[in-house]
Amino acid sequence: MTELLQQLLNGLSLGAIYALIALGYTMVYGVLRFINFAHSDVFMVGAYLGFYLAPRVGSGTILGGMLVLSGAMAGCAVLGVLIEKLAYRPLRNRSTLTVLITAIGVSLLLQNLGQKIFGANPKPFPAIFPVTQLHFGGLTVSSNQIIVLLVTLVLLGTLHWVVNHTRMGTAMRALSFNATAASLVGINNDRVISFTFALGSALAGAGGILYAMNYPSIDPLMGTLPGLKAFVAAVLGGIGNLPGAALGGMLIGLVETMVSGTRASTFRDAIAFAILILILLFRPAGLLGRLRVEKV
Amino acid sequence: MKLPASPDRRVFLAGIALATALLAGCKPSGDGSGGAGPIKVGEFASITGSEAAFGNSSHNGTALAIEEINKAGGVLGRPIELITEDNQSKQGESVTIVKKFISRDQVSAVLGEVASGRSLEAAPVCQEAKIPMVSPSSTNPKVTETGDYVFRVCFIDPFQGGLLADFAKRTLKARKVAILSDVSAPYSVGLAEFFEKAFRAGGGEVVIEQRYASKDKDFRAQLTAIKAVSPDAIFVPGYYTEAGLVVTQARQLGITVPIFGGDGWEAPELIQIAGSALENTYYSTHYSPEAADPKVQAFVKAYQAKYGGQTPDAMAALGYDSALVLADAIQRAGSTEPAKVRDALAATKDFPCVTGKTTLDAQRNATKSAVIITVKDGKFKYVETINP
Fold it and tell me: Chain B partners of A266 at a C-beta cutoff of 8 Å?
């Protein structure tokens, strides 16, 4: 019983990180109808920003940790806006396929620039928050795992509020519903899209920091696998649907952990992806997605 | 792609066969005795990527040895030219590199690699081209089983697994051991197997076996399952990147029992990743820089002078030794002809190395002693030497 609870906890903290990355995928898809494959590399840049920021702001305290986290999120937001401006905006009215391939190109560019600038070797990630172990009966929780869950919940709440209760959020939803009509009623589409990218990339940056905190060895290709899993999570939950992405992330994290703890541990990814196929067979729009609903 | 074997295609294939035969005909054999240029030796190494710490140490050791040999006048009166290529710790790259060494650079011999998986990729290529290959530190037995042109200068995993089983029983007083191995690395799978066999034979019990794959970051699920059966010790026969994370996460989950591994652990990165979590962990390796042997001390000094005060680890020592053993064989062969170099390598006996006297047996493996290292206050500390 204790073992099962412990595995649930492990799965939740892993799933929370997938959820954060999945939110970025799903938001950009909701507004622009294309998968931003460079998202997982923004995640990697977030981790490296934390790596270089940490010694400068004197981390290891709650305040220092928050500073590193916000710094990395801000840096990633800027990077996201830049990517959109330089790579995607010139292709705004081209076919989705063109943009999709450009996204893969940007992803490769970031990975290889990362290897050039940061070095190809894995780097140890510093402890940016104070780390302690908490015990509840037979359960052991690392303070890092709790921070991951808290930060994810706070960011998810903020995001929900931004999308549903602010002018910018209304504009995002309008754009996602009908871009032409949105610009006709006076919405500046370029600004809204920039904002979406900033928001999504900031979430990826936060995900990068949280991931690196829990698995303190970072390298320029670290984004690929979590990025893929998060993408699967977004599709699983219904791409374009925010709570769906969060739910999908949690599910993938839990399934992975549950399978890893058994003798079939090597089939972990196979089982996670098989579940995706099954769900898509019976619910093509994903768990929470409806075929024609407002997206974002 | 399946094409019908039209006449055109047959002519084309014959052309390729002819061209290959011609190319094969002018391969290094002619380069044998008369050539006055440098003796070319190809080295494939993991200079970047997940095993970069190993690859760089090994490469530094090899480069130091070649430099010393050339300073002393080279071999057969000719300097040795080391051609190094990086395989980025990736699967598949090594084959391309070794093929390039053989066909384009026309090397006399090949040195490499640390990781058994990548040595296993390159070995068949060398064997087929009949070019001697010396691996510095691949410990999986299959590497030299590839053929009679493949050698190594380190001990092999049946020995390492056996000594670790003995160590677990005798020093750690463990009766129930859990194993967490890397399914994607032949080194890890092999070492886990040999350990288990020896440990069972010694009356011990392996209570649970869990697996992961290289590049995994999360081991909490496997460790939670391990914790539930409360073993006396945990054996992690993987490489340092993952081992560091395994140890950190195990301690976070409140697992306090000793954790131990093989020579795949030895890298400064292990301490950078896991830090204080490494108390009460052990691993076996090939040599300790603390040994009093004057040969070791001279090597440590030369290495530190060349690489800005860095203390050489076991991979550096084996990289150094692999070049020395090869140079000695070429000297005794009196020629760079691959077949003669091979015979001379096979006859290596009691050659003085930094990692102990090296004799290559009929299976082209070295038999030598191992040491156990632990981590105390963020530093590697020598525990004991175990003789074969």
Answer: 183, 211, 213
